[in-house]
From TrEMBL:
PANTHER family: NUCLEAR TRANSPORT FACTOR 2 (NTF2) FAMILY PROTEIN. This is NUCLEAR TRANSPORT FACTOR 2 (NTF2) FAMILY PROTEIN. InterPro entries: NTF2-like_dom_sf. SUPFAM superfamilies: NTF2-like.
């Protein structure tokens, strides 16, 4: 050995002595989850939709939304249909897929009140995140994949289900003012 100290050794020694400020990055889910809770709790603000990329999609068994304006219509409509809505229990798992891409899985119990009746729903919310923005948001009721031409035995039936979800979304989007934020 020639007595030279490598750069890695110097960095390690500085950190051991407390001379560096290494701070692990917080999970992306920490920034996103509060907004998701607001969306499902019918108390969303325009800021809560900033978690989405402009071309993001949202899909559940009733709707298939493309773009932030349709996603706004889908979530703003919850308070019009249900007198109560919220996520009452949840756990979060975050998986790194590749550089800048994560998958966030939220196992949740959702509570709704419709025409005076309580509805409790077990759900798996899947968020696909790229560079800190949600690009795809899926809500799997009872943790079952959303019915489409790939998940249904008969592709024609799956295709019909996709069309019905799109039609439902377009009707909701129209009724909700095409993604217009509520006036405050």
């Amino acid at each position: 050995m020639d007595g030279n100290i490598s750069q890695n050794d110097e960095n390690r020694e500085c950190c051991i002595k407390g001379a560096c400020e290494y701070k692990p990055r917080k999970p992306v889910s920490d920034d996103i989850i509060p907004h998701i809770l607001n969306l499902y709790g019918s108390c969303a603000t325009p800021r809560d939709f900033e978690i989405y990329a402009p071309n993001a999609s949202f899909e559940d068994p009733l709707m298939c939304a493309h773009g932030v304006k349709q996603i706004k219509s889908a979530f703003y409509s919850i308070s019009k249909v249900f007198s109560e809505s919220r996520i009452v229990e949840y756990s979060v798992e975050q998986k790194a897929k590749s550089a800048g891409q994560q998958e966030i899985l939220i196992n949740s119990k959702q509570h709704y009140k419709f025409l005076g009746r309580n509805i409790d729903l077990i759900s798996l919310i899947k968020l696909y995140v790229e560079d800190g923005k949600v690009v795809r948001h899926e809500d799997w009721w009872y943790k079952k994949p959303i019915g489409n031409r790939e998940t249904i035995k008969f592709p024609l039936v799956g295709h019909l289900m996709e069309r019905l979800r799109r039609g439902s979304m377009l009707a909701t989007h129209s009724l909700m003012g095409f993604g217009k934020d509520p006036s405050t």
